[in-house]
Write a structure and sequence with these properties.
Layout lengths: L2 E5 L4 H12 L3 E6 L2 H8 L5 E5 L5 H7 L5 E4 L8 H19 L2 E6 L23 H14 L5 E5 L2 E3 L7 H10 L4 E4 L5 E2 L1 E3 H12 L7 E4 L6 E2 H12 L5 E4 L1 H7 L4 H7 L3 H4 L7 H6 L8 H13 L3
Helix pairs in contact: 1-7, 3-4, 4-5, 8-13, 9-10
Amino acid sequence: MKKALVLGASGGMGFSIVNELIERGIEVTAFARSEQKLRNLYEERREITIKTGDIFNLQDIVDVAKDVDIIFQAANIPYKEWEDKLVPFIGNVVKAAEIQNTKLVLVDNIYAYGRSNVAKVTENTPKQPHTKKGKIRLQVEQLVKQSNVPTIIAHFPDFYGPNAESTILHYTLKDAVQHKKAMFVGDQTIAREFIYTPDGAKAAVNLSMNDNAYGQNYNIPAYDVITGKELVQIIRELSGYNKPVWTVSKNLIRFLGIFNADMREVVEMFYLNEEPVVLDGAKYENDIGPLPRTSYREGLLRTIEYMTGAK
């Protein structure tokens, strides 16, 4: 791989994928809608080419994918747009990859698995989504697999890390580092997993450089499971935050949904905070090697340093 395109380069996972590729000496085109966001992140990085456009416009993706070896699809769109736009958007990415004869790595979540009846889900666990968003994600997977594009689908748990702002853990961190009233989404006694985005990026790039990985799905788990109480305690120790951290319950989300369309879309996925889906990474380790695993303390420290501008 000599040149890669990262769609959604202004987001959390896209940002980490760009950085991981650059560290390996790979030429990168960073694509997103907002030129200002891209400039804020990459303007001083001469090895990165900034391109802007509309992710829903096929020609924009075709044009920016010219002469690249691989496309990393890390762009995300608001929940309320999924039903009408997510499948067509990914369809355009696939078409662009076909036209430009490139490979594709798809950053995916865990929604298509649905409720889990096992301690850890493997890539062979049947996908039986019970939510609208889970069913849409399964449609995306089926669309990709029906194409002729060599594709890797990487399933990740919730993110946290530098520039990962559209995540539930970011909202806790943001308020804690500003010493404001902080909240944690879900029962703080339930253990679940959050992946540090640089770890996820390293795993995705490792997969992309293995020809045998294409045409397959891979689960990329986090360092370990952790409870909200444990996370909050680490955040307190690292940031000096000493105020109460309130729990955001499903009923509160449902109530907020009366006034906010985005909150209405969050309600159906709240089960993941109560019945966590935990990923098994054995296939990755068998095929690629040890998973990148940064401890929560180290990952949260680096994230807080990024948020506060500390060195």
